[in-house]
Amino acid sequence: MKKQKESQCTQKTISLLSPLGTIQVSGCENGVHTIQILMDVAPAERGSKAPQSCVVNDSPAETSPELQRCVEWLQAYFSEPQTTGSLPLPAFHHPALQGDTFTSRVLQVLLRDVKFGETVSYKRLAEMVGNPRAVRAVGGAMRRNPIPLIIPCHRVISSSGQSGPYMSGKGNHLKQWLLTHERQGKEG
Q: Which among 28, 54, 70, 153 is annotated as catalytic?
């Protein structure tokens, strides 16, 4: 018996302006495929130009309820971050999050167990997933995270307390900003 070919998704992309620069959210009617932080604004220039919240910059005429839910979650994250824990999450529709792969398990545990304003070490996350020796593999799972911000790979730090790389080292300043944003949001 031949396997039926899965139907291709019709993806749409919404562009948002945020304190981090432009964020693109892509997805289909089944859920969010990716969130990309474009880093189109240099950190030194970000100060006065960057919006303090997250606003839609470009959007298709029709979007799925899941994409809209993702946009609402991101807007809340930047304007009232402490409220995100009570908001419904969008459905995810990316292969890295489907099935029972190590990456999928790591990302699901991270999303479920590491709350707003908290951090976890790569080592502790490996233990939480049930494989304490898989510290480097946890780092690989963070690099493959298709939904950063919602699946909070920025909350994963080294055992020494250092923040560790973000976006393959190109976004370390963004990781620091996100951790500070959450610390301040938790206090406020």
A: 153
